[in-house]
Amino acid sequence: MKITMIGTGYVGLVSGACFADFGHDVVCVDKDAGKIAAIEAGTMPIYEPGLDQLVGTNAAAGRLTFTTDLPEGVKGADAIFIAVGTPSRRGDGHADLSYVYAAAKEIVESLDGPAVIVTKSTVPVGTGDEVERIARELRPDLDIQVVSNPEFLREGAAIGDFKRPDRVVVGTTGSERAISVMSQVYRPLNLNQAPLMFTGRRTAELIKYAANAFLATKITFINEMADLCEAVGAEVQDVSRGIGLDKRIGSKFLHAGPGYGGSCFPKDTLALVKTGQDYDAPIRIVETVVQVNDLRKRAMGRKIVKALGGEARGKTVALLGVTFKPNTDDMRDAPSLAIVQALEDAGAKVVAYDPEGMDVAAPMMPGVTMAGSAYEAASGADALVLVTEWDAFRALDLKRLASSMSAPVLVDLRNIYPVAEAEAAGFTVTRVGGKGSAA
Ligand code: UGA
């Protein structure tokens, strides 16, 4: 099969490389000539474990090519995927679909025969209808099918998630040709027994938002439980385990922390809220989740100031991890941004170290000094705050850290270290949701 991928962002580049790895012929198209040249030279635009190697092998095998020429790229394609960005529109939180529609228009104008256009970008309900309208208006002569195929991969685990998905959702308007093309596109996943689920197009669009909003709700629920645990003297990790062992609830996404961030949950929850309001079917639970999560990120700053003894002015706080989660250099809506803001507002000086995120983070937090290692960050600091649970932070020499600091205060926002261990190393410890598991 020949597959064209429009957009070489997270979803486009990972999906394109994985499709090529399954043996399809893939052309990735991006307007950004610098980005395409860099990828061709082996430099990935994002940090994602294994991606450079996957792109390299498939490009060398001739199955994965890159171009800035969209009309050339879509020629003879069996399926053309739109995987461009859908950021939050400034001001109102609606998804900005201008890139999706611009790509759709250019694709349709370049077609020389029937085509299946697939939206992989996260798009609100009804976007497929609009793409179809554009297609009919510009090329009434051609049979163009528009399909929705949302992507559920996670940053940092993107290749594994793409190749071994829990499910693949394909939304169509019932066209047999579209169903047959999409079945062939995903046939290589049959061996991994990934359920391929066909639905209506609007339903598929909504499934993506419902999934992200549900996960964001699960996280927010446990974060509020964590606050309650702190207030009543209970332990949130045991609460998570105690409820997560119930198969109807499940143990995943029940880690309390500083609030969810990233390029998806904040944007998608907001867009779902807007859709609900537009259709007079408000999703009040998600409206609350959005508010609670925003407040939580800022509250983490206050939690740190409290751990400093209530006064941050003139003190130095060292942050370990700035990206919104490990194994990515993505800083979008990272809790660290709100934490730095709150600490700087309170008069503290902030030092930070992150294994991959510092280049991206530095211009976003100009007042922060970037250190060369976790130990360098901690040296002379009045508090050490674990913000992102990178593997590299899981077995630090706590004694060495504590003894190098002005005051051995540890604020573990990811509950990585057992309290007893950190206390034995000399730290005064603040965690999220209690004093640690009794088990
Ligand atoms: C999320 C979804 O998990 C993917 O299925 C989806 O495809 C993707 O959005 C998307 O829409 O593109 P991602 O944003 O990469 O993936 O990251 P997650 O692993 O879901 O984490 C999101 C945020 O939730 C992070 O800030 C993380 O620290 C936080 N989180 C996650 C918690 O605080 N606790 C948890 O138990 C799990």
Automatic annotation (TrEMBL):
User: Which InterPro entries does UniProt cross-reference here?
Assistant: 6-PGluconate_DH-like_C_sf, NAD(P)-bd_dom_sf, UDP-Glc/GDP-Man, UDP-Glc/GDP-Man_DH_C, UDP-Glc/GDP-Man_DH_C_sf, UDP-Glc/GDP-Man_DH_dimer, UDP-Glc/GDP-Man_DH_N, UDPglc_DH_bac
Q: Which reaction does it catalyse?
A: UDP-alpha-D-glucose + 2 NAD(+) + H2O = UDP-alpha-D-glucuronate + 2 NADH + 3 H(+)
Pathway, per record = Nucleotide-sugar biosynthesis; UDP-alpha-D-glucuronate biosynthesis; UDP-alpha-D-glucuronate from UDP-alpha-D-glucose: step 1/1
Which residues are noted in the entry as substrate-binding? 152-155, 208, 253-257, 261, 325
Residues binding NAD(+):
30, 35, 86, 122, 155, 267, 332
Q: Is NAD there in the keyword field?
A: yes
Q: Where is the active site?
A: 264 (nucleophile)
Report the residue ranges that make up the UDP-glucose/GDP-mannose dehydrogenase C-terminal domain in this protein: 318-419
User: What EC identifiers does the entry list?
Assistant: 1.1.1.22
Annotated family: Belongs to the UDP-glucose/GDP-mannose dehydrogenase family.
Q: Which NCBIfam families match?
A: NDP-sugDHase (TIGR03026)
* Record's protein name: UDP-glucose 6-dehydrogenase
Q: Which organism is it from?
A: Sphingobium yanoikuyae ATCC 51230
